[in-house]
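dude i think i finally got it to work??
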Amino acid sequence: MPHRQHITTMPATREPASLLTVDRAVFELRRGRIVAIAAHGGARALVMAAEGIMESTLSDLRAMAGGEPHLALTRRRAEVLDLCPRDLGAPAVVALDLGGLDAETVLRYADPMSDNPTAVVKPAVTDINRHGPESAAIGLAKIARLLPAALVVTLDDPDSADLAAWTARRNLALVDAGDIFQYERTAAHTLKRVSEARVPLEDAERTRIIAYRPQDGGLEHLAIVIGEPEPHAQPLVRLHSECFTGDLLGSLRCDCGDQLRGAIQAIAKDGAGVLLYLAQEGRGIGLVNKLRAYTLQDRGVDTLDANEQLGYDADERVYLPAAEMLKDLGLRRVRLLTNNPDKVSALTQFGIDVAERVAHAFPSNKHNEQYLLTKKAKGGHLF
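look at this
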């Protein structure tokens, strides 16, 4: 299912600052540094990404916070580790009380590439409020395309009540949890055209490529406009998630390259339309995590379960940017080239009328046959 998050509209005047603080926090998290989070009800915490944790950085976190961290995981990951029962209605984030944890233990719980933890006594598991700093820390790790696991220490120091001043004295990035929770919506809402050029393609010579960039300078999405699609004509549209391995290298593990080239041919044959090339590699988990998922698949895990073993949902993609781009192009009623009914429902949710779903399938090979069967059996794809 496509990732959906309950978010409220942010005042336009607040959007640039919101994106900037999240962007800075992502940069710090990816560098292995400590980030401060201010959450609902005055809650405040210091967090670090579990990925890449070392004993030295763990000591820094303890010293700065003056307390013992706990490990925040997605419930998906905790279920894989058999730490809690499967419960679709339960909070999406849990906290593990590991006592005096060390870096090796953290990685064993957070990273399926490591040896799984073999503790005789299971750690205490606590469900986390979706507004809390642990949920925000997991959201930030996902935006950073890191493993969705984080070390979190609650700040009880009275001096930290003025968190902005406290973090400034320590040269720490400070981010509001609400900005993290609304990041996807805010980034999509601020997409702007930044470049456009005529790019004749092998199968569609009358093609323009338009680049869209969010206001924080993040990853660009591309609109590949073939011919001159007319809004009243219900043009053929394809939402294509970037796939470095399939689109560029010709990987046989997926059908992405075939779908990309086949969509361009189909749209050109139809006369005019748009292919949106969306920056959401690996169903939204990023290239590094997709390669990790491939390793898990080689161990016998299917493509959707591999994402869940990493701690992600089976599909983390968000289609709000696609809807915003189509609206900018003046296209509010389209025929959608897809086998995935979730794309139809997502576009409809975001104000695009899908007049028809057009099937888009290609022959399998020995390397991707199981992948395609999994998408059909477990992902709801129609062929």
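DSSP finds 16 helices and 14 strands in the chain.
im so relieved honestly
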